[in-house]
Task: inverse folding
């Protein structure tokens, strides 16, 4: 009986942990805002160093970069070679997206 009760608590705890992880992922996705990347467009397409505002906003959107590369408005800019240069200058690791 004690083993059964322990197993039940273990399963319930695992479900709770998995649910919390899914919630965090959903919250991160809801904060994705491609307009935030517009602060970096001038630096991406030219050789101008990124501003502090650009870097701050880029760091805030880091979890969204793969999704944003598919955005019809800003995706082309994120696929531009300058986007990786700006990300590096801002200390942001540009992900490898599928």
Result:
């Amino acid at each position: 009986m004690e083993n059964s009760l322990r197993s039940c608590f273990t399963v319930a705890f695992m479900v709770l942990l998995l649910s919390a992880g899914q919630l965090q992922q959903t919250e991160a996705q809801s904060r994705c805002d491609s307009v935030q990347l517009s602060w970096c467009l001038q630096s991406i397409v030219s050789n101008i160093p990124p501003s502090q505002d650009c870097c701050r906003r880029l760091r805030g959107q880091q979890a969204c970069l793969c999704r944003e590369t598919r955005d019809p408005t800003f995706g082309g800019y994120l696929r531009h070679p300058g986007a990786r240069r700006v990300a590096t200058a801002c200390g942001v690791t540009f992900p490898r997206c599928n």
